[in-house]
## 1
Amino acid sequence: MDDHKLKVFCTVAESKSFSKASEIIRLTQPAVSLQIQALEEVYGTKLFNRSGCIITLTKAGELLYKYAKEINSLYMAAEKEMGDFTGLVKGVVTLGASSTIGNYVLPSVISEFRRKFPKVTMHLVTGNTKSVVDYLNAGSIDIALVEGDVKKQKLIVEKLIPDEMVLIMSKHHPWAKRNNISIFDIAKESFISREEGSGTRQMIEKYFLKHGISPQSIKISFIMGSTEAIKGAVEEGLGLSIVSRWAAKKESRYGSLKTATFKEDRFLRDFSLLHRKSKDSSYTLDKFLIFLRKFPFDRLLNS
């Protein structure tokens, strides 16, 4: 039995889902099931209760989980000390990111990090802010990068970079040549929104409320599960939306979307780095965190 099987086991236990575990650790679902079956054969007992979509640990599974967490922590401690001793940066870092950061910011960061440390494998799991925070709380990912408010008290929240939100509209929209628009005018137009749980939606609603506009009074014409879908709908003239300047960077440069700021004040939020209070972290993760905190994000946004 090796540490890989125990990591798979812990990921299934923490995510309570074979499909979510397969996404997090980048194995097919059948491969995840085979790893669990192998452990069950070793111990001669079932480790999970499976009832439809609900996955829970058996009593034997709870016992193994306690020791598996300790074993995984010891593996991590050994890796960290060996890394300090040899200076070799290798291994796996699993990141969780809300969709804006995962789609528009991290790919370039990861690419530059891997050019510097080619022996590191990076796994990136994207989702809305709520789901990514849940993954981190469950221990399924090493760190998370999110937008929006985070209320989980057992996490350390560290502001990484500021992010400006901008209005996006079709290049054929009557406002296309205007540089700034009143939030009160926007509230009268057809609006395309993200889904519940999205950090972007959370911040937009908060911004409207700040100016005395109830989110219920916004004329939402569509609710979409991704920023890419929203941008496509806006390009087709189906409504307006508000997205991160990062998300609109390419379309704004090539003119397929027009952007504007807000007359009342700048709409700013933070991209935050989240990690657990546990001191367990690998040498490679520590190297990535140092790299991330020093990364020249302004250069990337303006390139």
Note: Residues 1-87 form a domain with the Arc Repressor Mutant, subunit A fold (CATH 1.10.10.10).
## 2
Amino acid sequence: MDRNHDESGSWKPTATLEALRFRAGCLRAVREFFHARDVLEVETPVASSSGTVDLWIDSFEVKSHLRHQSMWLQTSPEFHMKRLLAAGSGPIWQMSRVFRDEGSGRWHQNEFSMIEWYRPGWSLRDLCAEVEDLVRELVPSLPKARWMSFREAFVERAGVDPFSDPIAKIRQAVEETSAVVPALGAVDRDGWLDLLLVSRVEPGLGEDQPVFLWGYPPSRAALARIGDDQGNPVAMRAEFYWKGVELTNAYDELVDPAEQLARFQEEHRARLGMNKPTPPIDHGLVEALRHGMPAGAGVALGFDRLVALAMGADSIAEVIAFAEN
């Protein structure tokens, strides 16, 4: 059948009008929340000549036929927002459309809505308290969140110490849970930890009480500062889980330009080595850090996921007007 004349109903929205009205109310509440706290709403580009080189996040590449070059759709507004911080913006936030080249599913879409905000001078704990405040605006009955370290979560939920146990023990824990185990190298500790995180740690995490999972291995620092947990170096980042769903990723932001450039270069080489599409390094962010971005904390929150959980929906497709199958 000609798709243009498809009478199956595939043209219809995936969300009901009632759900879309609920979503609009959530967006209004978010805007009022930040307005009341004097956080400036900003807008930054969706497409850029550079992009993230994070090994675990894949960007969409688009071609400019006029400029004869590639552009990259943003996976997060982070880089441009940090340039605003370096320019003296003070606390800022935005609701943005972001794009990630990954499979769609119950809690994933290639295109989705993200709330991102930054608090100069704030600690990671301060910002995460504000995350709770924002979520509670939409879900007044939200219980107080528990702070759980990466190590605690793995020991408690998988019986493995992610920092000290041998890779063989981590692999065994994965194999006991997963019917299909990908072929990973015997020295790929991060890979096995990721599989164990997905198969044993994340499912049901924060089901009854929200959880801030913090203190990731330094190799998972991304754009976060390296700190200390009981004498062990850890990435100063925290992810907020509620009802088994990851809602946010918060950083005590890295502001050292040399360290940031070194991480970008390492990730860039790793992507090339894996034959992954590799955007150019964003040197604009590095220059902004050299100029002097204030120390502070920042966070990204999946708005579609939050709306779905607040409404009691089974998937984000129920709160997105036209979700991809």
Note: Residues 206 and 242 are 4 Å apart (CA to CA).
## 3
Amino acid sequence: MFKYHPQTSSDTRHATRAYRLLFITFFAGCALASFSQVPIPQFKSFQPIEPGKNPQFQSSPLFQPQRLSSLLPNDPYVQQNARILQQAAMNAAQNNREMQRAPDNYIADDERRVWENYYRYKSGRYQQHLGELLSMNPDDFSITRAIYLVESAWYDKPPTFEAFEKEIQLYADAVKQILKREGLDIQNNGAVNYGIQKLYKQDNPWHDRQSGKTYKIEKLGYDFNDPMGDSDWSNMFVDKLLRKRAGQCHSLPLLYLCIIEQLGGKAYLSLSPNHSFIQYFGSNGKRYNFETTNGNHVTESWLLQSTFVSAAALANKTYLDTLSGKQLYARMLGDLLLGYRKQLGYDRVGDMLVQKIQSVDADNMTALMDQATIAHIMLGMQLEASGNPLPEQWNNYPGVMAAYNRRQGLYQKIDATGHQEMPPEIYQQWLQSMQQEEQRQQDKAEYEKLLKELNRLKNIKPSLKSKPKQ
């Protein structure tokens, strides 16, 4: 129960991966050619420029952008953000170099035709799914349908929407049974959220009315295996979470939103560095923060102290605030963009998707990071085409300066949002810290507040209410 099997085997997928990556990088190299007004260089000697690492660049005024201060003095993560962007650009450039060297030596004509057809097929599927997403109302759309469209574009043979939604409906029915057993009103938003949280806190019984049998629903937990989707991007999916009952901070909160959508309640996605969690409001207007990764409540003060949230991020509501409908919708488009880039590389379709995202949410971080990565690649191309001049000579090369200014403008825009990255090792330590006694005591205190509110409401029938996004 609460399982369905994917229609494609992982063995088949792994067997074709080498050919597919070769094909994808070939088209990524072709697509990047369309960005530049100068011939694509061969990258024989291009080395990425990293402020602070290359001594000859440290004193150059070109590498002294104005940045907003954060809560942490001399914040090292500002520099790290630039390096992360540059590393992404280096990876893309490396793919281009490899394909420029010998696509003809490794891909026979018939194989190339096969993968060209595959590229057209996959790109067409992404565009079809994008078309349906764009037909939705950003202020009022089905998160369940949106997630399905994003994830099914990745698979060659995805599950049907009916199968995907059925699994979510089963969880929703389990919540109804929880609330009925405990005498709580399903019309109360706090009660609905409480019932969903039971799925993340513990195993729960579920009674199948058709068979008359009762099954145990295993609690939804955190999967420490490939939590960032580095080995397999589909590990980030709600689809995978439904099959394995284990996910991470991307899929676990999204499933929460899908379940509450089925129940007619309200909850919000909220962000912190490298992380997302759930916020919701009780009938008394109190805001609760729920960690789907471990089934605990956390306080805002604890989040502030432990997650590298900067003053700029708080001021701009980049972190620790509820996402509006438009912001959540843009995030869905951003997830579609990430899948597209990973499968098909950099091309005009991806650029169009970035523009669509920014027309909804100009500060969407996925779109900004994507633009900054491309801008860094283009700067490298301009430098190579100009003979790799020294920074103090760049003013003599209008193309170089235009590319540099474009990149730095995007870097500064990202910094202005207060966006920060938490290193993977720090993030793992943070997850483990949530099991410490101090955090457990905070969870207990917050949970007791919710239970006290629910007990008070057992004898009354409030309407379903939640605090709207301001």
Note: Confidence is low (pLDDT under 50) at residues 1-90, 95-106, 462-470.
